[in-house]
Design brief:
By secondary structure, the protein is of the alpha/beta class. 33% of the residues lie in helices and 17% in strands.
Length: 392
């Protein structure tokens, strides 16, 4: 979807913690009011909302909490982190078409102090609140020990190592870089707490070949974005981020977060499909991106995404990372905020907010002259992505 007729006008977030002390609805409302204040838009103007099917806060409850007007549009994107860019895509279509004037995109949860997504799923194979179809899809694998997200991710990671000679140290270099970025980001949970490769290698196994420091955090918090039509961009108090392109995708015969049945489980065809659409619709390519916000729920998927997005050939991502190319001085800084490994795990929404800050020039770890930023969300179903551009 080409979405140059819509912009992200405002960003907002709560603090990121392990025990928020607030209800999830309160987190959503606090983030939403923060985003609206950032955009200079009153809550009464909100007439659309977009979020995840997994979000516990209903649209009408949030509308009451923030004092929104009557809603003309609301939509939810299914499954997990892949919904982040997808929700923005749907908000952009609504704003560009005039279906709604001000669309609030939100995600809030107590994912550390409340329901922990990293734990084993119930016996029927579905996470709490998941659709019945997901129970059927996952249930076959639970008896084989594939009962947690880390276990699901471990199988493709091991295959990637087998196919390309990647090592645990290659995964560790991703974690080290993300934590280095977080260490200089005051918003990050791991602010001032970098790690070494030796510390990564000494961290305990979670599901071999994944160690604790290969796995993203469990966080409490909320993030909200305000999407409006581009015609309103000039009247906003802060520079918006232009939505140059947005896309969702899945591979043929896709399962959910991972697919154990396709011919090549060490690849991400769904991300390649998203990339193809993003590059075609934006008229840009991998080399035009000044930074990339990649969904880093598990370190091996950062490597696989770099390959699927066209930054290197299959099996070459470990060398790209080892050469320092994803660091602050590299040709593709990845997750300058620290990502989900270092800042917080808010299902990718905090990454979109970081992309907006980069384009505004206000990020903690600012990439000089950032004019285009790539954002990805999720691996599996749904996978989604954005190309955001600076407003001029």
């Amino acid at each position: 979807m080409t979405a140059t007729k819509a912009v992200i006008a405002g960003i907002g977030a709560t603090g990121f913690s392990k025990d928020s002390g607030r209800s999830e609805t309160r987190l959503a409302a606090d983030a939403a009011l923060d985003a609206l204040a950032d955009a200079g838009i009153s809550p009464e103007e909100v007439d659309g909302m977009a979020t995840f099917t997994m979000d516990p806060t209903s649209e009408i409850a949030l509308a009451r909490e923030i004092g929104a007007g009557a809603l003309r549009f609301f939509t939810r994107v299914p499954y997990g982190g892949g919904a982040a860019c997808g929700a923005v895509a749907q908000a952009a279509m609504a704003a560009a078409s005039g279906t709604a004037d001000v669309v609030l995109v939100y995600r809030a949860f107590n994912e550390r102090s409340g329901r922990r997504y990293g734990r084993a799923v119930p016996q029927d194979g579905a996470p709490t609140g998941a659709p019945a179809s997901q129970a059927l899809e996952l249930g076959w694998h639970v008896p084989a020990g594939l009962a947690t997200p880390a276990a699901w991710a471990a199988l493709p990671a091991r295959r990637y190592m087998h196919e390309y000679g990647a090592t645990g140290e290659d995964f560790g270099r991703v974690a080290v870089q993300m934590r280095a970025n977080a260490a200089t980001n005051p918003r990050a949970w791991f602010h001032r707490r970098p790690i070494t490769l030796e510390e990564h290698q000494a961290s305990r196994w979670v599901a071999e070949p994944l160690r604790l420091l290969d796995c993203c955090q469990e966080s409490d918090g909320g993030v909200a974005l305000v999407v409006v039509g581009a015609r309103r961009a000039r009247s906003l108090p802060r520079p918006p981020a232009v939505i140059e392109a947005a896309a969702q995708g899945s591979g043929a015969g896709q399962l959910t977060m991972v697919d154990f049945y396709r011919d090549d489980i060490a690849a991400l065809p769904e991300m390649a499909a998203v990339a193809e659409r993003l590059w075609a619709d934006s008229g840009l390519g991998p080399g035009d991106m000044d930074a990339a916000i990649l969904y880093d729920h598990f370190t091996p998927y950062v490597l696989m995404q770099l390959e699927a997005l066209g930054y290197c050939k299959r099996g070459q991502a470990p060398a790209l990372v080892a050469d320092g190319r994803i660091g602050p001085g590299g040709d593709l800084p990845v997750n300058p905020h620290g990502g989900q490994l270092g800042e917080a795990y808010i299902h990718g929404m905090n990454g979109i907010a970081e992309a907006v800050r980069q384009l505004r020039g206000t990020a903690a770890n600012q990439v000089p002259g950032a004019g285009h930023v790539l954002v990805t969300a999720g691996t599996g179903v749904p996978t989604s992505g954005l190309v955001l551009g600076a407003y001029s």
